[in-house]
Amino acid sequence: MSTEEFRNEQQFITDLYARLDDLRDQAEAAVEQALRTPGVGSSQGRLERDVMVAEQSGLLSALNAGESGLCFGRLVFKDGRDHHIGRLGIREDDPNRTPLVVDWRAEIARPFYLATGYEPMGLTRRRHITTKGREVVSLHDEVLDLADATRTGHESRNADEVLLAALDAARTGRMHDIVQTIQAEQDAIIRSPHRGVLVVEGGPGTGKTAVALHRAAYLLYAHREQLAKRAVLIVGPNPAFLGYIGNVLPSLGETGVLLATPAELFPGVRATGTDTPRAAAVKGAAGMADALAAAVRDRQQVPERGEPLIVPHEDGDLVIDWDMALEARHKARETFLPHNLARPYFVFRILDALAEQLADRIGADPYGGPNFLGPDDIALLAKGIAANPDVHTAIDTLWPPLTQQGFLADYLAEPTHLDDEDDAAAIRRDGGPWTPADVPLLDEAAELLGEDDSALRAAEEAERQKQIQYAQGVLDVSFASRTYEFEDKEELDKDASEVLSAHDIIDAERFAERHEEADHRTAAERAAADRTWAFGHIIVDEAQELSAMAWRLLMRRSPSRSMTLVGDPAQTGDPAGVGAWQSILGPYVEDRWQHVRLGVNYRTPAEIMAVAAETRRAAEPGFEPPRSVRSTGVEPWDRTVDDPVKEAADAVAAELREEGRTAVIAPAELHPGLIAALPEASYGPKPDLTRPVVLLDPRQAKGLEFDTVLVVDPDGIREGATHGINDLYVALTRATQRMGVIRPAVTPA
Ligand SMILES: Nc1ncnc2c1ncn2[C@@H]1O[C@H](COP(=O)(O)OP(=O)(O)OP(=O)(O)O)[C@@H](O)[C@H]1O
């Protein structure tokens, strides 16, 4: 081993960290300096200060992210170029700003992931640098130009050595980035130039989640300008999963991302309730959109023929009959506006018709001549009718203003327009918290109803007028003080006409605008609070789990249809999950979407995958799992026992002696017994995955991985749900090292 080579690399890394420290100090000082700037005076000054704080804080967190594994590679090109590759790009403090280390996302870094002996991409050598803190631990060189006889002493016999070491490492309960070992098939997806919908499919452990997250980081790098403004949304199946992947993007220096489950995408609603599988399936089905639309139309009523609404009025009864209401409803519906926005058209039409009715009655010439009332009299009558609260109460019974939550609660209390009576019974609800399956329905209701914000806009306009008046006062004062100040100065007379004051360059309206409170939240924070936010890019993990109604919600958040969807239909668990991609995407993008597949399993060793595949084949004989990249020589075990809880407790006790994390995956019915027997286990809706032992039901295990997995009562898992075989397949593919299957000798009661 060449120690000189090693020493040189260590020196480079030491210098690089010194530069990182400098940059960090500068960014820290800039943040402090900006925070100390009082930002008084104009709101422009405050805004500039806040932008500065945000920019420097973002830079600081990116620099902090570089602390671990800052530089992990080096490319030596035939033409003499020599680049270090790292988590972020860092430049020398010289006039040319010479790159010290190149960001892994830069085009020049690509051969690090793609070059092979057959296709060296101009490289003679590729080096993997493994560091611990700021110390270089090892170097692995791959010679790509066989004609080059130079040897460093660090040549690697196994090109996959670094990858296998990463895959073999004990799990921590948090997902890590894979920038050091992205594989070629993954790189192609991460950097795919496709702007529309990209579907990434692959079996368990093929790196779908990892690829999706790195694609987000890549897009933020390549299209920073657009995406920083519009933010990226990452949708995952449950909070535990989001917690598991939550560190990956920050570790890559990226923070402009909102992570959410579909149930969290209706601001102001926390969906804490649960549905039966049948209810979730009915609520998620596409037909629900038509049912809700029809239910909204049902709220737009007309009186029965011959049974008009009578409103007593000082000038005589007002009559709203079938004809009048039908015509008004037709006019309102003709606008194709949502219910609440079309409502004013209905209201005005009725008010007009009532004014006409009254005028005809009061001003009628008994001898058949023209009406006695002039336009002013009729206007006065109309005003009187419009001010009559009883008239509005009557109109409200025909076309009521509706709130999203009120409408949906009413609908679910008495569901209508469903083909099957049993479906209606399944979703009938009498109060209680909203469920995740209700969230897309609330969103649908919001679209169907629209928000009549005319009152809000009127209030805003009144406030704006007040601000303008106030600003006018401020400007008047400044004009007065200007005269006063300049009177003291001798040169006043000759120069005053050339001095610009606020008064000369700005009118009251613009002055008021400048004093409006600016919104300094990040794009991701604003997006989280805004139902109508259009994201720059959306990534959906476990996309096969989303119902048709959830897709409608997501597509509304992505008018540009710039999306990456990752999933595996063989792992679908949700009863409302949609099967084929074309049926999901067809209604939105027809066939303009791209489909790519990942075929290598990086997580599950071959021995465990064989068991998982065999189990699946019992139901699906031709099933082919992804190929495992490694085998550990450790066979999974399978025991049938009288007391599965005790067996699980004993197996966990044995595992606790090893490094890493263990998951016990069991049907929810067995959890009370297991909780009692496993005092060290974390469990519940959002278990702490960093603890040594975690107890999960199969759905919660989705997307996660552990060193050891114990699957308790596999037959119970398979029989326990609509897609039970998929749930069992998920459970059997979560281990990176060891797996045990525990079967009860007697089926649990
Ligand atoms: N190129 C890589 N280098 C190192 N580790 C990798 C690589 N690709 C994937 N992995 C690791 O393999 C494991 C599985 O990846 P990931 O969770 O992304 O797979 P997945 O396809 O989403 O799986 P599932 O569908 O089962 O949830 C993770 O630990 C991930 O870090």
From TrEMBL:
A GO MF term? ATP binding
Location of the UvrD-like helicase ATP-binding domain = 181-605
Cited Pfam families: UvrD-helicase, UvrD_C_2
User: Where does the chain bind ATP?
Assistant: 202-209
> Which top-rank group of organisms is this from?
Bacteria
Per UniProt, the keywords (alphabetical) are: ATP-binding, Helicase, Hydrolase, Nucleotide-binding
In this chain, the stretch annotated as Disordered covers 619-639
Q: Which Gene3D superfamilies match?
A: P-loop containing nucleotide triphosphate hydrolases (3.40.50.300)
Question: What are its GO cellular component terms?
Answer: cytosol
A biological process (GO) of this protein is:
recombinational repair
Q: What is this protein called?
A: Helicase
